[in-house]
Specification:
Layout: E1 10-19, E2 22-28, E3 37-38, E4 40-43, H1 50-62, E5 65-66, E6 70-79, E7 84-93, E8 96-97, E9 108-115, H2 125-144
């Protein structure tokens, strides 16, 4: 059957969680992109809608309760070092409750809020794509005022 992302392109999801202009990021311990800072997310299960998967993964990884989210962007990642290929639907939210906690210490080593202009490095491709989409959206809204 094969492994998603390794034997064939995997279908993933991510959720950019925003609070007071800051983005929630976590540091990955495992491939793909071990040591990179990423938004919360993971694999979409068979017959699971990607938006619901993003919210589920966010709740599992952060301990937050996600009330709603909206589509932000699509991201494709070819990770030569890990020989992985992922395509992910990325969503965004500021509609949640709780405080983030490191709930999966076997997968993540750190979690915290970061200003968009002072992000830790290195960023994962998914996180970089999310930041770019948030920045583009914010600039478009500012120009419409």
């Amino acid at each position: 059957m094969g492994r998603p992302g390794i034997d064939f392109p995997g279908f993933g999801c991510g959720l950019a969680i925003m609070r007071d202009g800051k983005l929630l990021l976590c540091k990955r311990l495992k491939a793909p992109e071990a040591g990179h800072w990423n938004i919360v997310g993971g694999k979409v299960d068979h017959m699971e809608r990607s938006e619901l998967a993003a919210r589920r993964e966010a709740e599992e990884e952060s301990g937050l309760s996600i009330r709603s989210s909206r589509f932000l962007c699509l991201s494709e990642q070819l990770i030569e070092a890990d020989r992985q290929h992922w395509i992910s639907m990325i969503y965004v939210t500021d509609d949640f409750s709780g405080e983030p906690q490191l709930t999966e210490p076997d997968k993540l080593s750190d979690i915290g809020w970061y200003d968009l202009d002072a992000l830790p490095q290195p960023l994962s491709r998914f996180a970089a794509d999310a930041v770019r989409a948030i920045s583009t959206h914010t600039k478009a809204l500012a120009g419409a005022v």
